[in-house]
Amino acid sequence: MSHDDHVVHDTDFERVRQNLDGLYGTVAALQNAEIASRIVGTRVLDVGAGAGKLARDLSDQGFQVTAIDIDPRAVAFAREVTGVEVLPRSVYETGFPDRSFDAVVFRESVFHLDFERVLVEVERICGRQVVIFESNSPNPLLRLGRKLIGHEEHDERPPEYYAGALAAHGYVVTGPTYLDACLIPLSGGLLTRPLPLAERASGFLLRLDAAVTGVAARAGLDRTLCWRYLLSGVKAR
Ligand SMILES: C[S@@+](CC[C@H](N)C(=O)[O-])C[C@H]1O[C@@H](n2cnc3c(N)ncnc32)[C@H](O)[C@@H]1O
Fold it and tell me: Mean pLDDT across the stretch 28-52?
């Protein structure tokens, strides 16, 4: 699963393809719309782009997106599935000129990385905005699910860790905003099989998720119940 400082999962790409075509594809598009709504500026770096769905959705909305991924299999898969040209580069040494980007987005990739080390390169190539969309590890059901399927991360931290690291580097942090109280386990997320009948009940499940996520937020239970969160750090140049 890991080589040197890069952590790459043994991905079932056929499962990813099916899930992106199904309910999870709709969920991911909604998540990507939330991410897009937070981005300041137009030049975006998508770090750990995987299948390229975020890069595709942001490009379709008019952002100038550059996508990188350390895994050559993801590069080939993205070209085939989303038509996105992902560059085979590591975020630790991107090779991009100083101040190339307005925003650097980590969509489910920070757990793969040493975030303090990442920030050194991010300060050089951007220094304006960091957006993190990630699994909400304080959710005990999420932790249990990961244990059951044997899913391990390189450096899994709670949202407060990333918010604190960004604040310590001078970013003004917004969030975390918690999302997806039900849809990740039901849709299978990116990597696992959806629950039987979930695809057929997708309209109902999308409405259910919106309602449960709203109630959880109002009850102050979103940090415990939601499966994903979004946070953004911005600083003046
Ligand atoms: C869980 S996948 C997320 C893929 C996609 N962003 C999504 O949300 O579906 C994490 C990705 O980070 C990539 N990754 C891991 N270490 C990296 C590094 N040092 N530089 C760039 N990408 C990296 C992995 O290869 C993998 O494709």
Answer: 97
Nearest to 190 by CA among 70, 57, 17: 17
- Per DSSP, what are the bridge partners of residue 68? 47, 87
Supply the range of the domain harboring residue 33: 2-234
For position 12, what pLDDT does the model report? Answer: 85
- Give the CA count within 13 Å in the CB-facing half-sphere of 137: 16
Number of domains in the chain: 1
**Is the CB–ligand 1 distance for residue 71 below 6 Å?**
yes
Task: Using alpha carbons, select from 112, 120, 136 the residue that is nearest to residue 47.
Answer: 112
Q: Count CA atoms within 13 Å of residue 166 on its CB side.
A: 25
Write out the DSSP string of 106-159.
Answer: EES-GGGS-HHHHHHHHHHHT-SEEEEEEE-TT-HHHHHHHHHHT---SS---H
Distance of alpha carbon 9 from alpha carbon 16, whole angstroms: 12
Residue of 112, 115, 137, 156 with the most ligand 1 atoms within 8 Å of its CB, for mutation: 112
Is residue 48 in contact with ligand 1, taking CB distance under 6 Å?
A: yes
For the record, the structure tokens of 187 come out as 């849709």
CA 230/CA 237 separation, integer angstroms: 23
pTM across the whole model: 0.94
Q: What is the CATH number of the domain that holds 57?
A: 3.40.50.150
Q: Does residue 29 carry a pLDDT above 50?
A: yes
